[in-house]
Amino acid sequence: MALLKLERFTDAAHSCSQALAIDSTSVKALWRRGTAYYSLGQFAKAQHDFNCGLALEPTNTALLTELEKTKKALESVAASKAQLPRSGSGIAAPIAGSAPQPMSVPQSPQDFERAWREHASVPARLYEYLKMVPTVRLPSLFRASLESTHIVDITNALEHGYQTHKDFDLVFKVLSALPSIDRFSLAILFTDDKVKERIHHLLKQLATEKDVDAALLTKEYR
Predict the structure, then answer these.
(1) Among candidate residues 187, 118, 129, the one with its CA nearest the CA of residue 158
(2) What is the b/e burial string over 51-84, where b = at least 16 CB atoms within 10 angstroms of the residue's CB?
(3) By three-state DSSP, how is residue 92 classified?
(4) Beta bridge partners of 92
(5) How many CB atoms lie within 10 A of CB 198?
(6) Whole-angstrom distance, CA of residue 211 vs CA of residue 203
(7) Which comes out higher in pLDDT, residue 214 or 80?
(8) Which of 162, 165, 150 is nearest to 195 (CA)?
(9) What is the pTM of this model?
(10) What's the rounded Cα separation, in Å, for the pair 115 and 137?
(11) Which candidate, 1, 4, 87, places its Cα nearest to that of 40?
């Protein structure tokens, strides 16, 4: 709470993530981290934490209030994006100086988070980044910060890898590693059913074309 009062929001979010790594059901830590994310303008992350907290305490008035405020902020952001000038091709005009940074293996969870923000919006780039990161390190890199938005990003990247490169190996390795990450059960709980269907399709293709028994892994993504 002291870090929030001092407006050290990044430090506050990190501190709460450490607390959640020890106890992923701490509603207080979820509320505080969601508040820090909101103050940082990371509204999707804030919404996820507030939803996770409400899954544990559905009548928590503080969480309900913050969630409503966050939803309004997300709506405002969406409305602003809809008004952005567009190029003749119908695609939003690129922003000067927005070229992605060169990829490198993350040395810390902070490096990983920064790179994820840089590459997640482009499935082809995130696919290349996931290829670079040893899958055995994913639990320690995500720590207690895995969210449903990450699962969506990963699904987009793995679909690109499968459709473009027939990269069954990465699909299997990444989908096998995710369930061992803290908060996976909460993240998958709030993942849209259509995204889960896409994951199931990838696993079905894996089972068909690589003769892999994916039945147990499929159950993890229900």
Answers:
(1) 129
(2) bbbbeeeeebeebeebbebbeebeeeeeeeeeee
(3) strand
(4) 86
(5) 17
(6) 11
(7) 214
(8) 150
(9) 0.60
(10) 15
(11) 4
Q: Could you read off the pLDDT of 50-70 as tens digits, one per residue?
A: 999 999 999 999 999 999 988
> Hey, how many other C-beta atoms are within 10 angstroms of the C-beta on 91?
8
Dihedral sign for Cα atoms in the order 209, 213, 218, 220? negative
Q: How many CA atoms lie within 13 A of 136 on its CB side?
A: 0
Structure tokens at 62: 């503080």
Distance CA 204, CA 214 (A): 7
Write out 156-219 in H/E/C secondary structure.
HHHHHHHHHHCCHHHHHHHHHHHHHCCCHHHHHHCCCHHHHHHHHHHHHHHHHHHCCCCHHHHH
Q: Output the CA angle 99-102-106, nearest 5 degrees.
A: 130
- Taking the C-alpha atoms of residue 37 and residue 9, their distance in angstroms, rounded to an integer, is 7
Q: What is the pLDDT of residues 177-222, one digit of tens each?
A: 999 998 899 999 989 999 999 999 999 988 888 777 888 899 999 9
* Helices within 102-146 (DSSP H only): 109-119, 123-132, 138-142
Altogether, the residues listed in the chain come to a count of 222
The pLDDT-based confidence of 3 (bands split at 50, 70, 90) is confident
Q: How many CA atoms lie within 13 A of 35 on its CB side?
A: 20
